[in-house]
Amino acid sequence: MLRTTNSSLNSPIIHALFGGTFDPIHYGHLRPVEALAKQVGLKQVILLPNHVPPHRPQPEASPQQRLAMVHLAVQDNPLFTVDTRELQRQTPSYTIETLKSFREEVGEQCPLAFIIGQDSLQSIHTWHCWAELLDICHLLVCSRPGYARQLATPEMQKWLEQHQIDTPASLSQKSHGYIYLAKTPLLDISATDIRQRHQQGLSCDDLLPPSIQNYIDSQNLYS
Fold it and tell me: In which pathway does it act (predicted)?
């Protein structure tokens, strides 16, 4: 059962979720979220490996392999925990459905946040039932290299400005409805690039944790 209050401070805990294919998980996932957690004061981030991502090509690694890599990546980092509910589905991993399930668990008053990148914010209007997201959670947005902070259309920019906040403390004062644009490290790392580098026999040591590199080698992934 998820805790809803911080007993030492007697204030609401922000339950923060971060989903992804994680094929493989890498520093471009982990380090911006760690920086975001410091800015916002997150005590824990729940990683949600996708089973069937609806907006991108299907993963090369199996669900079991991707889950194993996620566990290896965060095994010594108390900030992160892992939730497998999306991997247990046989249908597409629609964020809105996952958020609804978490909302049922934590109750209506607990702050719930979903972490995305600036790239996802730019295309969020293509997500399934995207307009309902802020009825359920806050959006915490990590910076991404090469993506503008301004949204593509006047309508989407107006939507952003209506919900954007500049003070992270506001996130714990309301259960949902805010967008916070964090200033996180601009790491130009992608899982696609890592897979391509592996196919070419190039080193990826600076792109992902050693435990993940070792696992990829042991499983003969992305070769």
Answer: Cofactor biosynthesis; NAD(+) biosynthesis; deamido-NAD(+) from nicotinate D-ribonucleotide: step 1/1
* Confidence grade of residue 20 (pLDDT, cut at 50, 70, 90): very high
> What are the phi and psi torsion angles at 205 (to 5°)?
-60, -30
Length of the chain: 223
The pLDDT tens digits of the residues spanning 131-186 come to 999 999 999 999 988 888 889 899 999 999 999 999 999 999 999 999 999 999 98
Does residue 49 have a cis peptide bond before it, meaning omega lies within 30 degrees of 0? no
pLDDT, one tens digit per residue, over 47-71 is 999 886 666 667 899 999 999 999 9
Q: What is the identity of the amino acid at 127?
A: W
Q: How far apart are CA 177 and CA 165, in angstroms?
A: 10
